[in-house]
Amino acid sequence: MRKVYITGLGFISSIGNDKSAVETSLREMRHGFELYPPFQQPLVPVKVMGTVKDFAVESIEPEDWTFPARYSIRRELLRSLAPHGLYAHCAMLQAVEDAGLAAGEIQHEDTGLYCASAGSPMVLSHYLNRMHELGVMRCSPVAVVSSISGTLNFNLVAAFKIRGHSCGFSSACASTGHALGFAYDDIATGRQERMFVVGAEDGNTDAILPFAAMRALSVATDPAQASRPFDVARDGFVGTGGAAVVVLESEEAVARRGATPYAELAGWGQASDGHNVAISHPEGGGLALAMQRALRATGLTPVQVDYINAHATSTPIGDASEVNAIRSVFGAEVARVAVSSTKGLTGHGLSMATALETGICALALRGGFIPGCGGLRTVDPKFADLNLPRATLATKPRVVLNNASGFGGANVSLVLRAP
User: Fold this and answer.
1) pLDDT digit string (tens) for 256-297?
2) Could you give the CA distance from residue 143 to residue 156 in angstroms, rounded to a whole number?
3) Which helix (DSSP H) or strand (DSSP E) does residue 264 occupy?
4) Full-model pTM
5) What's phi and psi for 140, nearest 5 deg?
6) Residue ranges of the domains in the chain?
7) Residues annotated as catalytic (active site), given as ranges
8) Do 237 and 319 form a contact (C-beta atoms < 8 A)?
């Protein structure tokens, strides 16, 4: 089994649109939340969202969009993108530059791409309504490829001339966790040399607001106190959009190119709750098993883990379930190992969450810091035994665990190690 390294990152997020801005926000505990104008209506109980800055993608027509001048995207590529497709394309360009990859290395049979998104409810609903009202022949010929859940891999594979493995993953908020895990397997077993893992979401009314009907979103009106994982007053997650790209390469490819990796992706584990379609098992059994399998796969023990980037979304049930899972795996080590959820700063990116948080963990491993718990004011007494740093710590972690959980009880745990 070959070693696998992270060699490039790309970010379009609520806390910054490149790796430098994201790291600064993490170090200074700057959140990305705002009162989102479309939510400021009497019948909408949710008011806050993690907004992507410097992009204007509200129009259904890509030609009306505006985005930073550093990105040059041809019209024929732009016309088949959803908003999150634009975010992903820009993050891909960043990641390619960050990893120092040449065109021949990207357009190679041993370079693949795995993606995850929920598609674009905004674009899909627009064209479905248009079809019913005006007839099917009045819809755009790119309506399908710009809107359905595979839109990321359709567009990115074509735009970047990917010739290796490619597919999309759909396990809700664990989607890019699975994508990273299976990309790791592809490289570790020699089937691919390099994989791009991409997660992106629109992060607009149609993508986020339906979760209000599940009572899953925070109804806080103060952006600074809306997303508060592990807090006694947490009342739901804050949605966000954007994109994150992680470049994985084999040890041989890293050596051949002379690349400087951020971190080693040392292994992973997954397991299912077998409990409920939408709610995590109260004892966190599936996530505990995923963490145990990840540690076993890497030959590590809980005493060697310095930091856990928790999935914790700021929901009453979900955070408690994850804490129970951590306790069952780490035992007495829960008083030592640092635990935080960076969703307290970024918001919850749904299927892109694990890619975003893996990128954050990679920045922490290279930069020598442990992110603090954004939004945490008063720790829930049920979590008093955990080490929950309020501020970002100037402590260099060596081993990091990154957790993800999704609908249906899908759980993934990734192990990252300093290279």
Assistant:
1) 999 999 999 999 999 999 999 999 999 999 999 999 999 999
2) 16
3) strand 263-272
4) 0.97
5) -65, 145
6) 4-417
7) 173, 311, 348
8) no
